[in-house]
Write a sequence for this structure.
């Protein structure tokens, strides 16, 4: 089913990849797709009128190889237990070398809990998020769990920039400030409708930013008697509970882009919300958060987690609760288009303003 979009926008299916997760776009428009399996795929010239055929770019036996990133002359991939680097130049049709494992995550080697590793890059720093091993446990299995890690592009010097952060799947760098933002899936088994899902500029806080999981949620609210929450981060953006942020991108079209979105979208963040398994089902959608720098246009309303954003793409869930898609990765192309992945139907959409 084609996503429902605001007037003037069109969605075109450009590829099918089972279990599609994060996306990365090269300067020539080649689109790279991480998955819940062992392969990273590429769609050559994904912004062309007729994109190239999707094919496997690299195989990495560390599933899920969900995170993908193009930065610092390399394609980076986030596997379950490692971060992998492949030398890359724009236009490469095959890997220049075998994938090199540059950093170890989930050092206990226990495949429990949240298994995806998301990636981002800013100002020479590589970031990787590593989800928790459980819903609400302490202590964790190892020091990399429930964190966002920072390191050199070689993997050297890995250290946490965020801790006690349950599952920061949606990483995005704000190009206007170079701050790293994280969309975080909150814990279950609390009062229905809580905690709100959060989206926050991790590196705008003194490192390591403490998000309080599992003892503190929302506006420093303790989840159990005696928890001390006065020191934890208060998030700048919230979404309804169980929305499950999976991907995010700040929209800033390159100068001379052929298909820029209207200026009302410039500087804002698009966040993919995967939807819930909780009843009633929270629908999958793509949300848009208007921003100025690192400040949302509206502050958090702790009584209403829907006031800071509006739906950009929807139509993925029928009134019966049946779903046709669940959005995951999102990325901006060099011509100003957005690419959107879906891990249920496997469709990769190109979203364009104006004629398709």
């Amino acid at each position: 089913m084609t996503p429902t979009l605001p007037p003037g926008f069109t969605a075109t299916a450009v590829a099918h990849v089972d279990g599609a997760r994060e996306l990365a776009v090269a300067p020539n428009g080649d689109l790279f797709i991480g998955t819940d399996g062992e392969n990273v795929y590429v769609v050559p010239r994904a912004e062309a009128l007729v994109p190239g055929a999707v094919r496997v770019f690299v195989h990495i036996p560390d599933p899920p190889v969900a995170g993908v990133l193009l930065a610092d002359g390399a394609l980076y991939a986030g596997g379950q237990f490692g971060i992998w680097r492949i030398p890359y130049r724009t236009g490469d049709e095959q890997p220049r070398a075998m994938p090199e494992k540059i950093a170890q995550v989930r050092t206990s080697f226990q495949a429990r809990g949240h298994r995806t590793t998301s990636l981002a890059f800013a100002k020479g720093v590589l970031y990787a998020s590593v989800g928790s091993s459980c819903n609400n446990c302490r202590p964790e299995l190892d020091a990399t769990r429930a964190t966002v890690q920072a390191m050199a592009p070689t993997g050297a010097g890995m250290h946490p920039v965020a801790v006690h952060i349950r599952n920061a799947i949606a990483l995005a760098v704000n190009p206007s400030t170079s701050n790293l933002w994280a969309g975080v899936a909150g814990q279950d088994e609390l009062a229905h409708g809580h905690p709100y899902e959060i989206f926050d500029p991790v590196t705008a806080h003194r490192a390591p930013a403490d998000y309080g999981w599992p003892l503190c949620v929302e506006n420093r609210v303790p989840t159990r008697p005696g928890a001390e929450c006065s020191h934890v981060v208060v998030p700048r953006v919230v979404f309804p509970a169980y929305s499950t942020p999976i991907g995010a991108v700040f929209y800033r079209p390159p100068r001379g882009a052929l298909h820029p979105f209207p200026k009302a979208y410039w500087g804002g963040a698009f966040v993919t919300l995967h939807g819930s398994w909780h009843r009633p089902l929270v629908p999958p959608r793509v949300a848009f958060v208007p921003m100025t720098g690192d400040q949302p246009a509206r502050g958090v309303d702790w009584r209403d987690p829907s006031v800071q954003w509006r739906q950009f793409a929807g139509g993925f869930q029928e009134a019966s609760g049946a779903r046709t898609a669940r959005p995951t990765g999102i990325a901006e192309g060099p011509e100003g288009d957005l690419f959107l992945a879906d891990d249920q139907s496997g469709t990769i959409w190109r979203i364009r303003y104006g004629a398709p």
In short: The CA atoms of residues 339 and 350 lie 5 Å apart. The mean pLDDT is 96. DSSP finds no helices and 29 strands in the chain. The chain has one domain: 9-353.
